[in-house]
Amino acid sequence: MPALKATGFTARITWLGRVADRDAALNSAPADRLTLSFAGPEGEAHGGRTRPSDSRVLDLHPRDTEIANVRQLSVLSAEEMAETAERMGIDALNPEWLGASMVLEGLPDFSRLPPSSRLQGPDGCTLIVDMENRPCNLPARVIEKLMPGVGKTFKTAAAGRRGVTAWVERPGTLRAGDTLRLFIPDQRPWTHLPEARNS
Predict the structure, then answer these.
(1) CA distance 147 to 25
(2) Could you give the CA distance from residue 191 to residue 48 in angstroms, rounded to a whole number?
(3) What's the predicted TM-score (pTM) here?
(4) Mean pLDDT of the chain
(5) pLDDT bracket for residue 22 (50, 70, 90)
(6) What pLDDT score does 67 carry?
(7) How far apart are CA 194 and CA 27, in angstroms?
(8) For residues 114 and 92, is the Cβ–Cβ distance under 8 A?
(9) Burial category of 115 from C-beta neighbours within 10 Å (exposed 0-12, middle 13-18, buried 19 and up)
(10) If you average pLDDT over residues 46-67, what whole number do you get?
(11) Is 91 left (phi over 0), alpha (psi -120 to 50) or beta?
């Protein structure tokens, strides 16, 4: 029995982009395709086989410790972005503002995909979902410059809808319009946290 099972769910890529220099700007530049190696998308500032640890893993590692890079891509849901925009009182949320690598359409409750889920493209290119990406103030600052008074609402509006981070399991090329198939781990949820036992 495979440890990963096909779900029957698919998603369509509606947008692709790259952050060329995250020290210069968070914004993504649109792309019609991403060529992915084991280090992530070519020309992506968040790429690399390793990365320096940051505030997300301070309980595990001192800041700037070299660790494996499981945050090579930032993947968002078109549906969740629309919900976030509505909560912010704007017509639409531009993925460029969020430093997105990819926007997908068609997967429900996207930001809660189980860690270690796979998204596989037509040529076999496969991404592994690391975990939910928490909202932060970096996109809020980008939005605030464009729409004063609106950016400060981003972090609250995007809670639970910020998408996931992912890394490359199998290299290949992903193109706008491609369909990705979803595979999830064949295991029950872990039930030893108080919130899991009480749900």
Answers:
(1) 17
(2) 34
(3) 0.92
(4) 93
(5) confident
(6) 96
(7) 38
(8) no
(9) middle
(10) 95
(11) alpha
Three-state DSSP at 39 gives coil
User: What is the C-alpha to C-alpha distance for residues 125 and 171, in angstroms, rounded to an integer?
Assistant: 5
Q: How far apart are CA 139 and CA 154, in angstroms?
A: 8
- Token output for 142: 């980008």
What structural domains does the chain harbor? 4-197 (2.40.33.20)
Q: Which helix (H) or strand (E) holds 19?
A: none
Looking only at the bridges linking them, the beta strands covering 102-105 and 73-77 are parallel
Distance of CA 175 to the CA centre of its chain: 16
Yes or no: say if 19 and 28 are a contact pair by the CB < 8 Å rule: yes
Dig out the tokens for 187 from the structure. Answer: 């295991």
CA distances from 118 to 29, 45, 58, 73, 169 (A): 25, 23, 26, 13, 9
